[in-house]
Design goal:
Layout: E1 3-9, H1 16-22, E2 33-39, H2 46-53, E3 58-61, H3 67-77, E4 82-85, E5 91-92, H4 98-106, E6 112-114, E7 116-120, E8 131-132, H5 146-154, E9 164-167, H6 168-173, H7 185-195, E10 200-202, E11 208-212, H8 227-246, H9 252-269, H10 274-287, H11 297-306, H12 308-321
Parallel strand pairs: 1-2, 1-4, 2-3, 6-10, 7-11
Antiparallel strand pairs: 4-9, 5-11, 6-9, 7-8
Helix pairs in contact: 5-7, 5-9, 8-9, 8-10, 9-10, 11-12
Length: about 325
């Protein structure tokens, strides 16, 4: 088996068919693909739709254990040499996996690779005009750039995990996703993978995956749905911070990137959740200070003179007056 595509799902009766149709053999006819759907207790008929219309899919019940546990359940039964995680509202473009798997077959020292992707907004079928602009992760084609990938993740620049093809034996060796996390499971997995020797390469061919933007629905994992999620995001960064020096990344660039990420969330939360925001700012100051402000030249100069907090306060004051 070349590839196992693992799809956790919960109440996606109107969307999962698009995901499964995108994996039809006619779009990937040069590969032997195993599709595993792990249903986390759907109550809207998702199970029945998959069972009735996609008999070739391995359909597993994993009731109310969460997306991370669902992915791990899929990983346990997967037989493919490689793994891709798709959400049950995303699409694999035609031949997306072909050159990635060919690269991994030719480079056994490489643990994973990734490709192009697009975000789209739709509450139904994908159409090209639904594609939306969103900041993209850089295509890093060199195999020895683990530090660059880590800096991206520490600063909040993440790859959608849907775009990554992994070696199954590596994921199993590091025990897959952390089931105790309700948010940022893919971020934690990637950072832990770096700490365990991840070598990942971009394969910039013409193919893509299409990632549905979740502004249209009410995800369980979205921090906006629970203040506890913000606490968990902060706790995860505290753990990563403590693990950085142990794994050889306790340097200025790592600390600055992490501090900048926390400072960004302070800006986002400071009016809606001031107590949580204060915790983010306090931790940002502990890690690396003053934080390196990103923005216009004038704004960066202002932050050098006044300090980042006063610069941000002044910016927000001026914005409110406009």
């Amino acid at each position: 088996m070349d590839l196992s595509v693992i799809i956790p799902t919960f109440n996606r009766v109107n969307l999962i068919k698009y995901t499964l149709d995108s994996l039809d053999k006619k779009f990937h006819d040069d590969l032997d693909i195993e599709v595993i759907v792990v249903d986390d207790g759907s109550k809207d008929g998702t199970w029945g739709i998959v069972a009735e219309n996609y008999p070739e899919v391995k359909l597993i019940r994993n009731k109310s254990k969460g997306a991370a546990a669902a992915r791990n359940t899929g990983l346990e039964i997967a037989t493919g040499k490689y793994i891709n995680y798709l959400d049950s509202d995303d699409l694999a473009g035609p031949d997306f996996y072909t050159k990635k798997i060919a690269y991994l077959n030719q480079h056994p020292e490489t643990v994973a690779c990734y490709g192009f992707y697009e975000y789209f907004q739709s509450d139904g079928a994908f159409t090209p005009d639904a594609i939306m602009f969103k900041h993209k992760y850089p295509m890093i084609t060199a195999p020895d750039k683990s530090r660059a990938h880590l800096i991206n993740y520490l600063s909040g620049n993440f790859l959608p995990q849907n775009s990554i093809v992994w070696r199954r034996d590596f994921l199993q060796r590091i025990s897959g996703h952390d089931i105790h996390l309700a948010v940022n499971q893919d971020v934690e997995l990637f950072v832990r993978a770096v700490f365990n020797g991840l070598s990942i390469v971009a394969v910039p061919d013409e193919t893509k995956v299409f990632v549905r933007d979740h502004v249209l629905d009410n995800r369980v994992g979205d921090p906006r749905n629970s203040g506890k999620k913000w606490e968990q995001i902060l706790a995860l960064r505290e753990k990563i911070y403590n693990d950085l020096p142990t794994n050889g990344y306790g340097d200025k660039d790592s600390y600055s990137a992490l501090s900048s990420y926390l400072f960004g969330y302070w800006k986002q939360l400071r009016h809606q959740q001031p107590e949580t925001a204060r915790k983010y700012l306090t931790f940002a100051k502990k890690i690396y200070w003053p934080v390196e402000i990103r923005g216009s030249i004038g704004y960066r100069m202002l932050s050098k003179v006044l300090g980042p907090v006063k610069a941000v306060n002044l910016k927000y004051f001026l914005l409110k007056r406009d």
